[in-house]
From TrEMBL:
Pfam families: RTP801_C. The keyword Aminoacyl-tRNA synthetase does not apply. Keywords: Cytoplasm. Inhibits cell growth by regulating the TOR signaling pathway upstream of the TSC1-TSC2 complex and downstream of AKT1. Gene3D superfamilies: RTP801-like (3.90.470.40). It comes from Seriola lalandi dorsalis. This is DNA damage-inducible transcript 4-like protein. InterPro entries: RTP801-like (IPR012918), RTP801-like_C_sf (IPR038281). It is found in: Cytoplasm. Belongs to the DDIT4 family. Its main location: cytoplasm. The keyword Transit peptide does not apply. One of its GO terms (biological process) is negative regulation of signal transduction.
């Protein structure tokens, strides 16, 4: 039996036709119930796996920012807009979806755009067992509209070490640059979000 959206399940005409062919009516009704269920509720395994991967990616970005706060950025904290890392993760998954190895073939370079240029934060390889097929460069942007806090003015020139900085606030915008590694004719894709 083939299930299509035009099949009128449980119609007397359909069942009597199958009974005439010596099919068991109870078996036919169970089969039709099964297909009714399948058509009403499509399998969501792919959605669950994609959601889980998206969450893992978002967590990787948050961990990257946390490590960079202590090592590269030398600031007390980094303020990240709500859902920014999830938005970035969805965009990364979208860009990886048309690649031969998908996300597993990705090398991700994370940068932060500051007033004086870009600062490299980290290099992330999603799956080190796979030869990379493409590179993504993620550029976080600093929120330039934020007013410095009064506390930052008090800290300037005081007893704190010169490497101590203020709170860094990220903008909700970001840039993703995709570069294919397996094709010489493929160009670079720049997406501003």
């Amino acid at each position: 039996m083939v299930a299509t959206s035009t099949l009128k399940t449980k119609s007397n005409e359909c069942i009597s036709d199958l009974v005439d062919r010596r099919y068991d009516q109870a078996c036919i009704e169970k089969e039709l119930d099964f297909w009714d269920y399948c058509l009403a509720e499509p399998p969501r395994n792919a959605d669950v796996a994609e959601h889980r991967t998206c969450q893992q990616l978002a967590k990787m970005f948050e961990n990257c920012l946390s490590r960079a706060k202590k090592t590269t950025l030398h600031c007390s904290s980094v303020l990240v807009p709500e859902k920014l890392t999830r938005r970035i993760a969805r965009e990364v998954l979208r860009l990886a979806s048309c690649e031969p190895c998908g996300l597993r073939g990705c090398v991700l370079y994370v940068h932060l755009e500051l007033d004086k240029g870009c600062k490299r934060l980290e290099r992330i390889v999603y799956d080190a067992t796979v030869v990379p097929t493409f590179e993504l460069t993620l550029v976080f942007k600093q929120d330039g509209t934020a007013w410095p806090s009064l506390r930052d003015f008090f800290f300037m020139g005081t007893c704190f070490a010169p490497t101590f900085r203020h709170v860094l606030k990220l903008s909700p915008g970001f840039r993703l640059i995709k570069k294919k590694l397996y094709s010489s004719s493929a160009g670079t894709v720049v997406e501003e979000c």
